[in-house]
Design brief:
Blueprint (H helix, E strand, L loop, with lengths): L1 H18 L57 H6 L4 H4 L59
The structure holds heme C (HEC) (2 copies).
């Protein structure tokens, strides 16, 4: 009796799976064994308008193109404009003091290694349709105002 019940449940699940195949919104109909082709990007937002943050301590998104910017152990293109000593000339906002702190909170004279690879936290934007619905609402009271402009 117990066995036939299990059988019935399994049969029901298989029938259900066949009737309504699960389609992942991001993968589309591509089978799980195949790799999806990533959409081509190439039109990054590039207006230099700083965007509002959605919550305090959010890394601000990048309002300009960054393709081709070298960031490796030899050179950091981002710091060419965003390092504190460069901003008078570049007109970019300086990286905040947190980027000069080591993990004990001591302020260093150079950028902290924890903040060296900028793209770990900051991302450029692209005007593309949403892949999946998203009802996230930032907390306007929480959003840190941009410090400049
Ligand atoms: C040629 C100069 C230049 C370079 C190189 C550059 N930026 Fe910028 N960046 C700007 C300017 C100008 C703005 C917009 C004005 C501002 O920040 O006040 C900006 C804005 C930003 C902002 C938004 C700041 C905010 O408070 O909203 C982030 C984040 C940022 N850049 C990160 C980067 C990263 C990461 C790189 C390297 C991949 C980089 N930038 C390279 C000039 C530059
Ligand atoms: C570990 C994550 C992380 C890394 C790596 C990082 N940032 Fe940030 N960044 C943040 C966060 C979080 C904020 C907002 C809070 C703050 O200022 O600390 C921020 C703020 C900024 C701002 C706005 C400053 C302001 O006063 O409004 C700029 C510009 C910026 N980062 C540029 C950079 C650049 C350039 C690099 C690489 C050299 C970098 N960041 C690396 C997390 C990061």
């Amino acid at each position: 009796m117990k066995q036939s019940l299990v059988g019935l449940v399994v049969f029901g699940l298989v029938a259900f799976a066949q009737a309504a195949p699960f389609v992942d919104a991001m993968r589309g109909p591509t089978p799980i064994t195949a790799t999806t082709a990533p959409p081509r990007l190439g039109n990054q937002v590039n207006d230099d308008h700083r965007l509002k943050r959605n919550y305090s301590h959010q890394p601000p998104v990048i309002p300009h193109r960054i393709d081709g910017y070298q960031v490796d152990k030899n050179f950091n293109k981002c710091l060419d404009c965003h390092a504190r000593e460069k901003t008078a000339f570049s007109q970019a906002s300086p990286v905040s003091e947190t980027h000069y702190m080591d993990r004990k909170g001591a302020v260093l004279r150079h950028i902290s290694t924890r903040r060296y690879f900028c793209k770990q936290c900051h991302v450029a934007q692209e005007n593309v349709p949403l892949l999946v619905g998203n009802g996230f609402r930032g907390d306007p009271a929480d959003a840190a105002p941009a410090t400049k402009k």
